[in-house]
Each structure stands twice: as structure tokens, then as C-alpha cells.
Amino acid sequence: MKRISLKYQFSFMVALLVSAAIAAISYFALRHEKQSLIQERQLRGRTLVRNLATASGEALLSGNELDLFAYCKDITDHEEDAEQVIILGSDGTIIAHSDPQQVGSPCTTSVCDSVRSYDGMRITPVTSGPDTLYDYSMPMTVMNKRIGSVRVVMSNQSILKKMGEVRREILRLSLMAVLAGILLSILLVHVLVKPITKLVEAAERVGGGDFEHRITVRSRNEIGELAQTFNHMGERLLKRKRQIAALNEAARSLSATHEQQPLLDEAANTVNRILLPNQCIVCIEETGRLIARASTGFADSAALRGAEVVFPKDILDGLADSDTARIYPLATLEQSLGGLDARPSSDNGHVLVVPMTYEGVRKGIIVLVGKQHGEEYTETDREFSQIVAASTTISMLNIELLKETAEKARMEAELKTAEIVQQTLFPKKPIKTDAVEVYGYFKSASETGGDWYGFIEDPDANRLSVLIGDVTGHGVPAALVTATANSFVRTVDIFRHRYNGFVGTAPDSGVIDAKRAALADPLGPAQLLSTLNSIILASADRQLAMTFFASTLDLRTRSIRFANAGHEMPIIVRNNGTDAPEALVASGPRLGDKDTVEYEEAGAKLFSGDRLVWYTDGITECLNPDGEEYGSRRFLRRIRTSASLPAEEMCQGLVDDVFAFANGEPLNDDVTLVVARML
Questions:
Q1: Dihedral-angle region of residue 325 (phi above 0 means left; psi in -120 to 50 means alpha; beta otherwise)
Q2: DSSP per residue over 420-477, as a string?
Q3: Whole-angstrom Cα distance, residue 166 to residue 90?
Q4: What is residue 130's three-state secondary structure?
Q5: CA 49, 54, 56, 60: dihedral to nearest 10 degrees?
Q6: Which tens digits make up the pLDDT trace of 54-84?
Q7: Is the Cβ–Cβ distance between 673 and 655 less than 8 Å?
Q8: Alpha-carbon distance 275 to 590, whole Å?
Q9: Model-level pTM greater than 0.70?
């Protein structure tokens, strides 16, 4: 909608007011003029009737009746309002009339009747309407004797004519007055509205962002005061604009800083530039204490860094879990700031304390002591200080998050490397010979696990060692123990092949010494566990223990020798399919629990088609979403139903059944499985 100028609005209002005033004045003037004309006409009518009665009485007494006609004609000729002039005799007969034809006629009207019974002058309206006729009547008396009466009927013609002239004159003068009023109002409004127009133009420029624009108005009235207020507002807006620009620049600088100390220095400098405090201290919470880490306005800010700032408990409690800046008298914090030489340079003894808080996390506080030029801290100052404090806090949290992220990425990379390295500890391919096929599976509950299995082939002796272990827990520490066990087994195997025959039977005896025989075969189940126990004990220092099952298959004699260090006993399913599954029963303490342990060794006969299953408790203790364990019974039932399959298919079928039972539930322990089939 197009704007209507205030100038035209004001001129229109002035024209209306002038017109209304002139109309009111004209109404009362016309009314007064009409009343004056009526009174004048009444006075003239009374005078005419009175003079006519006197003259007519004298003429009748002197017998000059002809003069009566002359009187009637003279009145009608010279009085424009006189419609009729009537002279009546004492009997009511018309003896003279302005219309000679009426002479001699009796007057029978009510006016005539009232005149005969009335002693004085009487004015009677004859008709009604704008042109009302009035009858001026009066008796003629001589020596107090009524000899007749006179009547003059007068109209309002002169009054109407005069009122028409007056109306036309008033209308002419009114139009001239209205036009003059409009012209004067336009001129006056132009003078009055010009400063307002400047205010409007200035407001549009300021609204467009030109906060430096100022108004020059010399008026000393309210408009002048408004202009001064507007200029002050512009100065404040310009100041706020510069503060906001500085704040935005500071926010970019704070967010781009990735080290804590430069960040705190930038925060102190930002507050100093925007809020102009006498002194500024940025304190960070460290181990329950407030430590000054950045400052401005001090003679030696470097010496202040690291100093503890002790604030009253009630103030700290009031700032807890709050992001609202608060103003305190300097006397309240004088003891806390006294040792820091923090004093205002003017009479403004106030301290602005700003908590560095974000989402309930307080990292410290910013303390502003006094303000330059003796000014007071305003609500806007408090809001700006809170923005700086919040930005600084967020940047501090981001720096911590970046460091945590970098550390996490480093650890994840190291864990990934450890996972890759751990995969090298497991056999790279299954065992397939004319006598046996062996297939293994491992899945860790985390990046690295505590389960391990391995194969040691001895083609010269036609033997195969199957080893499986489980360190308590999982993760990196457990993986290190499995790496230690693997390294020991590989080292002994290399040593045995390289120095085969280093010890053996005595040349003069056909009997093999048991200890020497054990040394001759360091990978024998009992000897391996005993030696590995000492190594795990020394490596883990009793912090971790390991269950272990060592077994050696003699493929020539189709037998198995084994020893157990607290591990789950492997299962044998015989080829006949009728016997219940058997367990390879042997007992012994876990590796790393005791200093010196002698493990017992046991054996069993094997037949073609037999299946052997080695496993860790991660299988039987696997949980589904309802918290139910997979369990030994389900595991044995699944072993029996899949015993006719090749080793690889049987192993994979057992694993698939376990994970189908888990139904997506994360593993709570490593899963390791080895299946062998005798051919």
C-alpha cells in the first residue's frame, strides 16, 4: 500500500478543522443575524401600527377619511414586508384597506374578533412555514374611547432576502478562509514536518545498515529531543555493530585455535577489545582448583600465569551449572584478587564474573575487574561476555575431543595392526594328509582376542600336534599372552628340528631316561605345558592365566597323547555312530597360576573315521538376545548330527549353528573351534 505523506494528512486535518470551525461560526452568525432581523422587523411593525393607529385616529376625528387610504398606500409602497394594511371601524367594518375592493366589508376573522376585545398591541401569526405572515394589530382610541382598530399583515420577505445575502457572503468568506487555512497549513506543515522527514530518511538509512549517519536538527522542541535520541541510538548501534564484528572475528579465531593456551590468550584479548575492562583473568579448573592461565591489564601477565585464584565458596556455588555472568562489588572479591594486584583504575569498584560453561560442564571462569573510563557493565556487556565464554568453552571441548579422537584413531590403528599381527599366529591353511584332515576356526570378541590354536607338523616322525588355549578375558593383554605362547611353541619346534638328536639314549644302555626323553621331545604334551607355565607365569606376573590343551596325534599308530591345563576337554565321536561322544580326560592347573607344576599325560586309541573336536568356552557360553547360553548339551547334539561330514564342513556347520543361535547378539568371548577327521 502506498504511503500517504504526513504533510498531506496534516493539511487535510487542518482543512477539516478550519471548515468545521467556520461552519460552527457561520451557524451561530446566521442564527444571530436572523434573530436580529426578526427583532428589527417586530420593532418596525410595532412602530408602523402605532403610528398608523395615531394618524388614523386623528384623521377620523377630523373627518379626513381619505387620508386613511393614503396611509395604507404609503405603508405598502415603502415597507416591502407589508402585505396588507387594514383600518377597521368600531363595528368591525373595513373603512380603509391596501386593497380598495375590501373597503366596506366586515372583518369576520378571529384576528378581528380578538382586536375588538384587546386593548393593547398584539402580534398574531397568520400562516406557518418559511414565509410566515404576522398580523400586527392595535386599537384606535381617543380620550380612552375605542373608535376602531388598525392591522398590518407583514411577511418575512426582507428577512429571507437578507439571510440569503448573509449566507452568500459567509460562504464566500468561508471559502476564502478555508483556502487560506489550507495554504497556511501546508506551509506550516512543511516547516514542522521537515525535521520528521529527516528522521524518517535517517531511520531508513540506519535500517539499511548505515549506523554512522547522523541527523542535524536545530529544533528545541520534542522533535529536536527525538533527533538527539536518534543520534545517540545510532552511536550505540554503531558501537554494538563493531562489538558484534569483533565478536564474530573472535569466534572464528577461537574456533580455528587448536591448542589450549593460544585459545585462552585469544579469549582474554577478545574480552579486552570488546568490553574494555581494566583487567581480565581467565581461570581454568584443574584438579579442583582455579588456575590463572591468561590475563590482560597486568604489569607482568606471564608471572600471573599458573597462580591459584581462590574465590568465596558461595560465589562458586552460585556459578555452578550456570552460564549467567554476575556482577559483584570489588569488596566481595578483594581478598581473592588482592594477591593478583587486581584493582580498578576508577571509582567503578565492580567485578564481572563469567562462568565458562557449556551444557552443564564448567571449564573455568573469566574475571573482569572494573571498566575503562569509569563505565558500568551493562546487560549487553554481560551477554557479550557470556558469548565469548561459551565460545571459548566449546573450543576447549573441541580441542579435547580432537585429542581424544586422534588418540582413539591411533589406538584403533594400533589395534588393527595388532589384529593383523594376531592373524599371523594362526595356521594359514588346514591340515590334509593321507591319515588325517584338520580344520580350525577363530573369531575374536574384539579387535584382538585371547584364544589361540595351532598345528605343529612332524613329517619325519609322522606326528601332528594340535594345540588350543584360552587366556582369561580378551583384548590386547590377552593377545600378548597368546603371542607369547605361540612364540614359545614355534621356537621350540624350530629348535627341535635344527638340533634333532641333541639328547637321546645312553650308548651303553637300551633304556631311555624319562627326563632325557622329555628333553628330546620338548613338544610332548606334558613337557610343553610345564615349560609354557613357567613362561606365562614370568610374562603375566599372575595378572593373567591361560587354559591350554596340548595333544599329539601319532598317525602311524593311530593314537593320541594329551595333557590339559584347565581347558575344556575335547570330544571324540567314534566312527561306528552308536557310541556316545567321549571326552579326552586329563586334568591340571591353568598356566600362570603356580610356580612349578607337573602335568599328567594320557592317551587314547583312534580309528579311521573318528572325529575329534577341540573348542573354547566362547562356544558353549555364547548368548542369544534372551540371555540364554548355547550350552554343552546343544553343542554335543550338534556334533553328533554333523559327525558324518568332512572336517571343514563339520567345523563350519558347528560355527554357523552357534551364530544362528546368537541371532546377532555381540560375542561376549572369543570363539575357537578345531575339527579333525581320521582317514
A1: beta
A2: HHHHTTS-SS-EE-SSEEEEEEEE-SSSS-SEEEEEEEETTTTEEEEEEEEESS-SHH
A3: 44
A4: coil
A5: 150
A6: 888 888 888 888 888 888 888 888 888 888 8
A7: yes
A8: 70
A9: no
DSSP string, 86-117: EEEETTSBEEEESSGGGTT-B--SHHHHHHHT
Distance of CA 359 to the CA centre of its chain: 14
Closest C-alpha to 130, from 161, 84, 109:
161
Task: Tell me whether residue 121 is exposed, middle or buried, using C-beta atoms within 10 angstroms of its C-beta: 0 to 12, 13 to 18, 19 or more.
Answer: middle
Residues in CB range of 223: below 8 A, 6 or more apart? 192, 195, 196, 199, 217
Residue 393 is placed in which grid cell? 568453552
β-partners of residue 296 are 280
d(CA 39, CA 492): 152
Dihedral sign computed on CA atoms, order 564, 652, 648, 417: negative
Cα 530 to Cα 596: distance, rounded to the nearest angstrom:
8
C-alpha cell read off for 102: 375590501
For residue 307, give the C-alpha cell: 597462580
Q: What digits encode the pLDDT tens for the residues 545-572?
A: 899 999 999 999 999 999 999 999 999 9
Strand pairing partners for 582? 572
Instruction: List 454's β-bridge partners, or say none.
Output: 467
